[in-house]
């Protein structure tokens, strides 16, 4: 292309606005040829280099646009959405935290959040790839789970300081289900037939064990609490070499409370 032809095209495209298919409007701020056009998005502001054909087709993407459940964005960096495992994990925590349809089915996630840092996929992916057990599998070949509750009991925020990768057995070890058991404390069930409070606990390698029936829920709970601490330690010891030390210590120090 002659210099005059280039200058003519530059004059034609500089400052021209284009509407993209999913990321709103952008404006050309520099033109160096058909294969190198620099544009700036308005909302959120971001500068990107693209080709003229992709720009005219509306296929220029703003990586800072929160398109995943209205919160998450791909970010500007080396990690892309085709990195399937880590991307699906990221999309999963955003869905659990911010998808209203998901909340209708799983009400316990209504007040869950994702930290500001992890709304950017680049930061989440960087953290995942830096975790020792990110790609680990348990003895049944199942991938470790991303857990937000074990390091900080009652935690409702997915973040680098509160999350870890653990085997499925540990992930379910301290799960509670208030809706299923009703008004009794965790591990305790009221039996109408004898008007007693019954407690039982599952032990690794032994299955569900009956721990007795008691006159009050408080008595039954104290028995359950001590048994559950033993049960947790048995599982923690089995996995000690296959989990982070901070996960192991958190399990040993786990507090079972009446209103869990």
> Strand order of the main beta sheet, please?
1-2-3-4
Give the rounded overall mean pLDDT. 93
Topology as H/E string? HEEEEHHHEHEEEHHEEEHH
Number of helical stretches of at least 4 residues: 9
Report the principal-axis shape: elongated
Straight-line N-to-C gap: 73 Å
- Give me the count of strands: 11
Helix content: 25-40%
Which segments are poorly predicted (pLDDT under 50) over 5 or more consecutive residues?
Answer: none
- Rg, please? 27 Å
Describe this structure in words.
With 260 residues, the chain is α+β, with helices and mostly antiparallel strands. 33% of the residues lie in helices and 19% in strands. It is built from nine helices and eleven strands. It has helices at residues 3-13, 52-56, 84-98, 100-105, 121-129, 168-171, 178-181, 217-239, 245-252; strands spanning 17-19, 25-31, 37-41, 46-50, 113-114, 145-147, 157-158, 164-166, 188-191, 196-203, 207-214. The strands form four sheets. Strands 1-2-3-4 form a four-stranded antiparallel β-sheet. Strand 10 (196-203) and strand 11 (207-214) form a beta hairpin. The longest helix has 23 residues, at 217-239. The model has no long low-confidence stretch (mean pLDDT 93).
